Amino acid sequence: MGNDIITYIQKLELFGFFSGYCLIYTLIYFLKGENNSKPKLLINRLATLLPYAYALTATLYLGMFIKNISLDFSIQNFQDQFRVPFLEIWALLAVFFWIPLFNKKTVFSLIHSLVFFGFLVQEFFINMNSPVGKEAIHNYMKVFTDSLLLNLTTLALVTFTYFFLLYFGKKRKSFS
Fold it and tell me: What pLDDT digit, counting tens, does each position of 51-107 carry?
């Protein structure tokens, strides 16, 4: 039972970091629409900054992962951190969205996050008819809400940083 609860908590962590991104991505591209004629619109800029926000979320997850394994350097502890190996390795691959080769196509970040969203939906349907299903579904909905808030926050932080650098880049050119 001890390993099952740890695995459950690690799944919740993964869902909490990555599952809400696909809804934010879909919302931004829905608001963007087919009209790409005005490249200066904020929504168009948000669409291009989405992979950077996702990479920031992945970097935060990587930091939490390193913090968890840095307390004990034993091989057993390192193995214990990989309770859900496919999902955790997939999550750590999201750090590659900092690299321009991967973030040029924003749809790659969507595909990456859909894996976590798919597993979340699967867990939702598995627990729908189980005796403890209501509590599990309640936990998953809380985690999904937290994931939405985290991904909105990282998008806001990346957008603020982008416009901050853009503004001071223009100021620097005007002084030269």
Answer: 999 999 999 999 998 887 766 666 666 566 666 678 888 999 999 999 999 988 999
Question: What CA–CA distance (Å, rounded) separates 123 from 117?
Answer: 10
Every domain of the chain and the residues it spans: 5-175
Is the separation of the CB atoms in 15 and 116 below 8 Å? Answer: yes
Mean model confidence pLDDT for the chain? 85
Q: How far is CA 34 from CA 30, 37, 100, 126, in A?
A: 9, 9, 24, 37
Residues in the chain: 176
Please give the Cα distance from 55 to 61 (Å, whole number).
10
- At 85 the pLDDT is 79
CA gap 119, 18 in Å, rounded: 11
By the 10 Å C-beta count (0-12 exposed, 13-18 middle, 19+ buried), 101 is classed as: exposed
